[in-house]
Write a structure and sequence with these properties.
Distance between the termini: 35 Å
Strand order of the largest sheet: 1-2-5-8-7-6
Number of strands: 8
Shape: globular
Largest sheet: 6 strands, antiparallel, barrel
Length: 108
């Protein structure tokens, strides 16, 4: 999949999330949904069984979530606990991250 195909998918089907870095928020389109998993601490969701408070983020290649302090979506706040660049040949196709819901906001 080339970069323009991914960008069109994000624009059409992605959710609007806000990424906070150095206290400033930027709105981006990304896929953001509960992670499906079978282990202790599960809860049932409309998308299946998911560990409570863990979410998958698939976002645009040009925005590295490594330095993002918080993500806001649907009135809740999250922080990234793992991030990866997903390559396609010599370029980055998209960014993958695992996020965890925050119990308390850090003040970004």
């Amino acid at each position: 999949m080339d970069g323009s195909t991914w960008e069109r998918l994000l624009e059409r089907f992605g959710q609007k999330v806000t990424l906070y870095q150095a206290g400033l928020g930027s709105d981006v389109k990304a896929f953001f949904q509960p992670v499906g998993e079978r282990s202790a601490g599960e809860e049932a969701t409309a998308l299946g069984v998911a560990p409570e408070g863990k979410y998958l983020y698939l976002g645009p290649a040009e925005i590295d979530p490594e330095g993002v302090e918080e993500l806001s979506w649907n009135g809740r706040f999250y922080h990234f606990i793992r991030v990866r660049a997903v390559p396609a040949g010599e370029k980055i196709a998209y960014r993958w991250a695992l996020a965890e819901e925050l119990d308390e906001r850090s003040g970004a």
